[in-house]
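INFO worker-7 received task bundle
INFO bundle size: 2
INFO processing item 0
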Amino acid sequence: MHHGAGPGTLIIAERALPDRGGLAVASSPIAAHAAARAPGRVHLLALSSDAPPGGRAARRQQHEAGDVALHLVGPLPSQGDTLMALTDHALELIDAHALDLVHGVYATRAGYVATIAAAARGLPSIVSLRGNDLDRGLFRAGELPFLQHALTRASFVTGVSRALCERASRVFGRPVAHITNSVDATVFKPETRDNSLVASLGLAGATVIGFAGELREKKGMRYLLPAFAEVCRRRDAHLLLIGGVRRDAEEALAAFARAAPEAHARIHALDYARKPARLCGLLALCDLMVFPSLQEGTPNAVLEAMAAERLVLATAVGGHLDLITHGEHGALLPLDELDRLPGAIEEMLELPEETRSRMTAAARARVIAAHAPADEQAAYAELYARARGATRAS
């Protein structure tokens, strides 16, 4: 064991707020929860282009739950060099601050580095699966070795959805604890439509369909856009892309613009800052939120829409199955029925107001009951205590 250790926690992630993406949205709150409940100081080590390549820039992240020391490492052109640099910085932080626990958020890179650094110092490690790391890592030759190492060497493994936990447990023959995402329902809540925002976007009198997050292939872009074009043939509809389009999907959107110019003219790509009040205001404009993901963890975007009492239509994959009981909290569409997406959208838009209100109220109630930040915080605090206790016992 690393003598004279901690207590103190090192969390390693690919991204942290204010960077974009689901990993950043997940890793910073996990660090804040740890800072609120775990003993000692919490250090969050994440990749960011804001730091010099291979070098480290230090900051603080202040959250209501706790104060986190944030260390950003600049990626290098080679993935191997990036992982080496991340590992070197992890070991420096462990030694400089006498940290006694390492937690990697996302298995194939951060989890790999977490298990390497922890093993080098005789410390316990935790690896948290987020979805893409397992879904893609199992079938990509360049990622599988990192995934396999992380999940076989970690002291404890967690998964963000039940389906993810079951699959990882079966493939790697080890227990995987389910710790889901949380949303603060006092912050993400129903808002009244802002008429000035409606007017500025040209939405007056129109049906508004929403999608939250960066639209890309994995999120069902190739199904959502044609479905929207079909809906536009039947009604005056607009599509809000709350979070815009991922850079590598811009060419596909341009192709859609050439094929369906009238529908494309009714798409609004909004690159929002992650301010809950702004997001809730945009969600309030939407008659229906559609999440046609092909694979999924447990997306905060769906949780936030549910907390804001928006009607949700999502694919029956991953964490969507944990969040939505079909017909009770929204609607689920099987992956092999995605060709029915235009009709499913129409069915949701035609629901009686009483049914809509019942579903959206039930969705918010589920978020409050099963996805409270205090519950996520307690789950990680218990896991951290178990990891430290297991090491002391050995």
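INFO item 0 finished
INFO processing item 1
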Amino acid sequence: MSQDSLIKLECTKCKRVNYNSRKNKKNTKERLEMKKYCKWCRAHTLHKETK
């Protein structure tokens, strides 16, 4: 069984889910945080992993 699972990345400003990604939960236990472009805010904002 693969440990990779799909995660959703949510903008911290407008709270919209903009990106989907994969993460190996065996290697990375903490939640991901990335600066990505949000088309609703029209800026690069911090995106956090949601459940």
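INFO item 1 finished
INFO post-check item 1: The chain has a mean pLDDT of 92.
INFO post-check item 1: Strands lie at 4-11, 17-24, 33-38, 43-50.
INFO worker-7 idle
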